[in-house]
Specification:
Length: about 300
Amino acid sequence: MAFQLPPLAAVRVFEAAARHLSFTRAADELGMTQAAVSYQIKVLEERVGVPLFLRKPRQVALTEPGYRLAAAATDALALLAQAYAEARGNAEGVLSITTVLTFASNWLAPHLGSFQMAHPSLAVRLDTSSTLLDLSRESFDIAIRSGEGKWPGMVAHPLVWADFTPMLSPGLAAKIGGVKEPADLLKLPILDPGDPWWLQWFTEAGLPVTDLATRPDSRMGAQTYEANAAMAGQGVAILTRPFFLAELAEGRLIQPFDLLCNDGRGYWLAYPEASRNVPKVRIFRDWLLAEVKASLGEPRPV
């Protein structure tokens, strides 16, 4: 529904003049000249079609239509001011982050507590998605995405490169007497055999394979799920090593070969160029880059 509204600038001036019953005091409050106040009220009276003030020597008084409009204008501006303050407070006090699931569950969530302790007044809201978003149009402040870091209009900082390698449970490896060479992996179920990472890894390992496409095409949609399946002994997963250091250290997963591959992609912190100096974005950016460096090391040069 379209609203028929008077000029809001004129309403603001009228409300101040009606509250003070003085054009001079309204001008002082609004930082305007008395002539500018008189002009805005004249504009409003022309739109309404009736006088809103009775001009008397050295004072003004509201007409009946002016009195009714003044009461409504005060209520409306007060409501608008309250809603604006709440919206501004929410915008300043909440940091909304859209991130890919694996980064969120395997790195960000375990480290986020230190950020919250350092900045208790800044609430964090996480959304997990792999879809590329236009942050200038969406309700997120920051995105963490995988890719090459080339997104128009965005500032992107590399966090960690997606170095991948096969991993599996010790129990599954024991079923074939251990995994001693890359060919041993082909004796086991391969999780998501259609993932191009598999072909690249086997090729770089000196074992080009052509039959992966004939295997059951099991897809789980995220490395987190594939890692859980691998730990349960359901197959071999090809995973980004930096996100599964704890599982490797605890022996829930094993990495049978030192070979790490990369297809030029990594995980990036990204935000609109216009948000570069927004305080909450700057605070989170500085914390995240330092925290990633401390736990995963400095990312390789692009």
